[in-house]
């Protein structure tokens, strides 16, 4: 999940009696699974929450290029290099669709970017972990994209039209991302002893951070209840995390890799795996900026933005000159 | 030198250009000035790597010693690389990267156009596919060179500096040796010098619109396409690109 700990604006779910007439009509449309479009009336808190959520999601796609970009120049074969390039290019494209969806809510891409760079807006905690071996390219595709898909598939049905449409486009590409990741893991897990070691090490390092992607338990949160009533959040964090564990454990077994959790057991009664919670104090540390790569990731983005200033200025200046010559010629 | 030996050399030149430039361009991933440029650069790198697979794949086939494209890419040392010095030059700022791309794309497009009528059908086939991509790269890089050259005072100065820095690496594209003569005689590839008039015309047009001045010098650094003397930069690039294959030679990826 690329949107974590999104603070829902407002005071929680209102009863129909507490709602204004407009709010009641809006909620009825959401309940009837109608799509809300940018020009439609919407509660201010709905708009604000969506900007936070879509913005954070977009930022995650952008910062998410970095850990994988880290291996493009070291990819071990031409085909792997091409696949990884295509994948990272897709992620940049996802960022673009999402910024466009956010723009329909009245916030510009530049404004959102400034908020990312100033630290006011966050991106997913997962991208603050380093990619240390080639097997990490497998683990990221398999686990990180896998967790993202868990969250994004239900969001295809979200109430806000542009967000829903962006999710539909993105989900098509995400399944390719997960497959290529699993394919790398398979090659590594069935490879030489050194490759197997890399594969297990990657799973060890990425398992708990992947579970953290869903955010801490929110089943009793009033904010989550409001987001769910608005259908911009479709499941609780725990539901999605459980689904992810249930899907992933058999895949790890198939690879012959061990999930780093001594308490992991199949619970016949529940029909789900029981598993250990990640270390939530580590999660909060990462959110506060103390993850292993927070500083590097933000620095990379800030430098790219600052060093690109002259390019953006020049492109704008040139476009203006061209427009002026066109007017003069008319 | 037999026909196939010359053809192998020629194919390595084609494939090494796209391999090394593709690598350089991919270094930008996640660091471009705007999102659209990040996407475009990744796309360019992706096309170039795809072309590399075709050229080096065919090179291995022609050589007939069981080397495939990966073997050629990851298991040769610098002196066996046959790329132009231009493409191994470090990225520098975004302006220099795009200027290098433009100087290459202009030549690449013209060359691929000629190769489409090569007497060697396998060469013509690759050229046909690659030329569509190259035409798109050229459109983009030329547009960007124009916008940045004719943008602000700062961007103009940066682009002029990029052109001045890269200009001595342009001449190598047009110098013929025994390999080129053999290719021309067989009708496989054109004489490199024959591409120059069209290249100069194209450059003149775009750089004029970009308000940039082509340096008044014909001096050319050479040594890339015949492998005689690469720059110091290539070795560093290879240490990164080839590291996994070299460190784990018995692994399959
Ligand atoms: Fe994505
Ligand atoms: Fe992703
Ligand atoms: Fe993805």
UniProtKB/TrEMBL annotation, chain A:
Residues 1-20 are annotated as: Disordered. GO terms for biological process: phenylacetate catabolic process. GO terms for cellular component: cytosol. InterPro entries: Aromatic_CoA_ox/epox, Ferritin-like, Ferritin-like_SF, PaaA, PaaA_PaaC. It holds the Pfam family PaaA_PaaC. Gene3D superfamilies: 1.20.1260.10. One of its GO terms (molecular function) is phenylacetyl-CoA 1,2-epoxidase activity. This is Phenylacetate-CoA oxygenase subunit PaaA. It comes from Pseudodonghicola xiamenensis.
From TrEMBL, chain B:
GO terms for biological process: phenylacetate catabolic process. One of its GO terms (cellular component) is cytosol. Pfam families: PaaA_PaaC. It comes from the Bacteria. PANTHER family: 1,2-PHENYLACETYL-COA EPOXIDASE, SUBUNIT C, PHENYLACETIC ACID DEGRADATION PROTEIN PAA. This is Phenylacetic acid degradation protein. It comes from Pseudodonghicola xiamenensis.
